[in-house]
Amino acid sequence: MKKINASYFHFLHTICHGLRGMASPSLLNDANALLYSAKSFAAAMLAYYIALSIGLERPSWAIITVYIVSQTSVGASLSRSLYRLVGTVIGAGMTVLIVPTFVNSPVFCSVILTGWITFCLYLSLLERTPRAYGFVLAGYTASLIGFPAVSDPGAIFDIAITRVQEIMIGIFCAALIHRYVLPARISGQFNSKLSQTLLAARQRIADTLAGKPDAVSGPLHMALALQFLQGISHHIPYDFAFSVPVRQARKRLHDRLARLVIVNCELRDRLALIATIPFDVQILMDDVEVWLACKDEGKFKSEGEALKKRSEKLLQRYVVHELTFGAALHVSFMRYLTEAIVLVQQCYRLSDAIHHANQMPAHSEMNDVKGYVFHRDPLTAARTALGAFTIILSGCMVWIFSAWPDGGTAVSILGVCCTLFGSFDTPAPHIVKYIIGSLWGVVISLIYSFVLLPQVSDFIVLVVVLAPVYLLAGSLQARPPTTFMAMGITLTLPILCELGAHYSGDFAVAVNTSIALFSATGFAVFSMGFLQTVQADAAIKRLLKLCQRDINRSVKGVLNTDETLWINLMIDRAALILPRLPRSGQSSEQALNHLLHTLRIGLCVMRLRRWDAHADKEIKEVLTCLTHSTDINTLLERIVSLTERSLSVADELSRHHVNQLVDLYCALSTQEMEHADDQ
């Protein structure tokens, strides 16, 4: 037999790569959704078979678990599986402690169980990372097991152990299939988004230097990309083994990109304030623009080093002649231009370190990294948890005083709705999608239970019969717009069909369970829409109010925080504001400009406060004026006077004061110009 030429393999690889490039994004999304659906269905059937084989009471829970934990990437699936396992064990354990202890007092038992569920919701809202899913599971596992088990408290331990076993089987099968069968690595998505973000950052810097018109707060829009990268980054350790330095590189990269947002804003302000750009600086700016647009990797690195040296030399030259405020403004611009070049270089070095786990930038200082900083608002989280407590407890009261036989099922579903959808500003539309899916799930379940399943006597045939619905629903679940609707199908079908070791179709049970399902979800739509809905304007005002509070505390010396931590916190707040702006009645630019102004003022205050022991009385008075209503023009004149006075003294403290006073002047000038434009 003739040997196959290796060039044939190269030819085939080229053809396949070309076909993949020609495929439209929608076609690739369809293919990925179908692959996800097939793997999830395989995992569900494997879990169902194992649960049947060992004689578990309700193997349908294993199917449900698979569809709850399965995600479109292996990293997200494995992390979600781990958090569900931990949350399920904790939730089941608390149920075993609560129900038998307080079962003789139904109202008090309801209060304690509801309190646990909403406490878990509160913790999940504060966590704000994928780890929050563990708290969610600890809450709604107690709801699913605890409320229906009140009628038989003596069996609560056996029920909890059985549920945990069924769920563990589902978790194991989902993790196994998604990990080893055509795994979809989340690292590829991370690298792709990172490349797009770096290119966007370069383009924004280039546009700023070119003087292209853009909103003052334009650079803040990068906050959403940084938030998305953080969300993906959390799952990367579960994708495959990454070393600790690479995790540090991801944190450092976030710090650099967040800082680049601020530097871009500073450059823009100084270009607007400087009347005439010196010729040598303009030449450098033009060369930096060309460098930022360079697509050749080798040339990009070499030219970057050359531009950095040129910029540093120009900076030193202008520092020598820094005798007036105008000269200080030029020096400040050169300082930020040099920093922008350095930041872009650092970002690409760190990106290389992330792509190649065995490489690290030799000069990177990895001991002071902060990484993504999450905004946490205990008061807002407590408000949401209190609303959920009211909703679930009111459902319990209806159940107790009406003696509804299926009330436990209804309240357990109500608890799940409050924990799963409590993190949304507007939970009602998402629950409505789930209700629509559940309607389809009930109809399909009734057809299966009383038409198809009575004819099935073999496991293989059962798999074939279930495949069409689950493959379709699974592909819909992989698409964000239809995820909740699809979950209404995938989660309702196993419960109503009573998929056990033997066929046990009971029309009355199916109807009563359906009534409990729609009563609970319908009540959830109404009550959560009334108590849990957060208006976009109110949320934005709350965030901006907290920003101003932090400034006031910083001026008073109460808030002593790191500059990088402050920038990263404000970037996260920007990412929280941006999605709410389309639903808000106020100006998008006005809200973002307010946030950006607060961010920059906060930086200036922190830097000046760092030297507070040596700061003179006038600088302290300037800081105090920032928190009170005052004439900005008068304050600007005072800052100019202080700056020129510091320029006459050549020491480190004066140099520091000049830099920060110029920054403060630019931030306040921008605010004054925006105020004038609004009028």
TrEMBL record:
Per the record, membrane topology reads: Multi-pass membrane protein
Ordered alphabetically, the record's keywords are: Cell membrane, Membrane, Transmembrane, Transmembrane helix, Transport
* Subcellular location(s) of the protein: Cell membrane
Say yes or no: keyword Transport present: yes
The Gene Ontology terms for molecular function here are: transmembrane transporter activity
Is DNA-binding found in the keyword set? no
- Per its UniProt record, what Pfam families does this chain match? FUSC
Where are its TM segments located?
81-99, 105-125, 132-150, 156-177, 380-401, 431-453, 459-476, 507-531
The cross-references to InterPro entries, in alphabetical order and at most eight, read:
PHBA_efflux_AaeB/fusaric-R (IPR006726)
The protein's superkingdom reads Bacteria
- Which Gene Ontology cellular component annotation is one that this UniProt entry carries? plasma membrane
Q: What is this protein called?
A: FUSC family protein
